[in-house]
């Protein structure tokens, strides 16, 4: 079985191809600075046109996740309604290809939640949100952003509580560290609205060395400067894997309290 390296929780672990189901209580994790032996040029540019989601290896999740309730966070002014159900949410836009996979579980015992409706949204590589309904502060009145719904999508989780999206690494915008919004519903009832974050060291690599991002000025907000990121940030930061072919994989386990 091929061995793959997953970057998580301030450390690197080597895990097998498929993470086995597990039911562990919360563990105390010390968050240290991660180090990534990667360069921006290691990854594809120009978006997801050359990426086939079905040909990527299965998402690699922690075999022993923290079974905790993910903190609720603000919906924000950039949410819009009537998001399409789809896996590739890019609408052909540029950026570093990112396979974003979530696993939704019951926080009490880590049982997977099947048929949860998960919606995601985030900025493009320029730090701009799409959607005509979004506030002007989100779209910056950018005509291309307003005309579409790029980087917005929704799916139902499978029997393992998982759903995968094909997107790009989000760009930063003033006052916020890079993040992905998520909203989870079941049978029409909203269960959670939250935000998931990226490691600062990885964002430095992407923003400083990837051709689709490096022409922008330096970002003004890091994780420890963002007033919205939770204190238990370790439970709200993606785990990462660099896949063959220049695609970045990000995974997260989201715990529901209800």
CATH topology: Protocatechuate 3,4-Dioxygenase, subunit A
Oligomerization state of this entry? Answer: single chain
Unreliable segments (pLDDT under 50, ≥5 consecutive)? 10-32
Question: How would you write the strand order of the largest sheet?
Answer: 6-3-10-9
Structural class: mainly beta
Helix segment tally:
3
Mean of the pLDDT scores? 89
Order of SSEs: EEEEHHEEEEHEE
CATH superfamily: Aromatic compound dioxygenase
Provide the CATH architecture: Sandwich
Shape: globular
CATH class: Mainly Beta
Q: Beta-strand percentage?
A: 25-35%
Q: Give the fraction of residues assigned to helices.
A: under 10%
Radius of gyration: 17 Å
According to DSSP, the number of beta strands is 10
Question: N-to-C terminal Cα separation, in Å?
Answer: 37 Å
Taken together, the total number of domains comes to 1
Topology:
Layout: E1 4-8, E2 11-15, E3 97-106, E4 117-121, H1 136-139, H2 143-146, E5 152-156, E6 162-168, E7 179-186, E8 189-197, H3 200-209, E9 239-243, E10 247-256
Parallel strand pairs: 3-10
Antiparallel strand pairs: 1-2, 3-6, 4-5, 4-7, 7-8, 9-10
Which key terms come to mind for this protein?
258 residues, mainly beta, Protocatechuate 3,4-Dioxygenase, subunit A, 4-stranded mixed beta sheet, 4-stranded antiparallel beta sheet, globular
């Amino acid at each position: 079985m091929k061995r793959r390296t997953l970057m998580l929780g301030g450390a690197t672990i080597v895990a097998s191809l498929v993470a086995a189901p597990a039911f562990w209580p919360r563990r105390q994790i010390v968050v240290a600075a991660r180090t990534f032996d990667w360069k921006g040029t290691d990854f594809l540019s120009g978006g997801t046109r050359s990426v086939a989601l079905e040909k990527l290896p299965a998402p690699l999740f922690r075999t022993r996740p923290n079974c905790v309730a993910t903190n609720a966070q603000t919906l924000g002014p950039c949410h819009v309604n009537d998001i399409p159900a789809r896996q590739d949410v890019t609408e052909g836009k540029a950026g570093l290809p990112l396979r974003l996979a979530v696993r939704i579980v019951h926080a009490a015992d880590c049982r997977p939640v099947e048929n949860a409706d998960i919606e995601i949204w985030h900025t493009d590589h320029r730090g701009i949100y799409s959607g005509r309904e979004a506030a002007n502060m989100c779209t910056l009145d950018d005509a291309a952003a307003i005309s579409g719904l790029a980087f917005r999508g929704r799916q139902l989780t499978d029997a393992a509580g998982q759903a995968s999206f094909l997107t790009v690494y989000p760009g930063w915008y003033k006052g916020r560290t890079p993040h992905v919004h998520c909203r989870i519903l079941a049978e029409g009832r909203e269960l959670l609205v939250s935000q998931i974050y990226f490691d600062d060291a990885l964002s430095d690599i992407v923003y400083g060395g990837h051709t689709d991002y490096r022409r922008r000025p330096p970002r003004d907000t890091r994780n420890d400067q963002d007033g919205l990121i939770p204190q238990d940030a370790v439970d709200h930061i993606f785990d990462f894997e660099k896949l063959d072919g220049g695609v970045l994989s990000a995974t997260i386990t989201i715990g529901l309290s209800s």
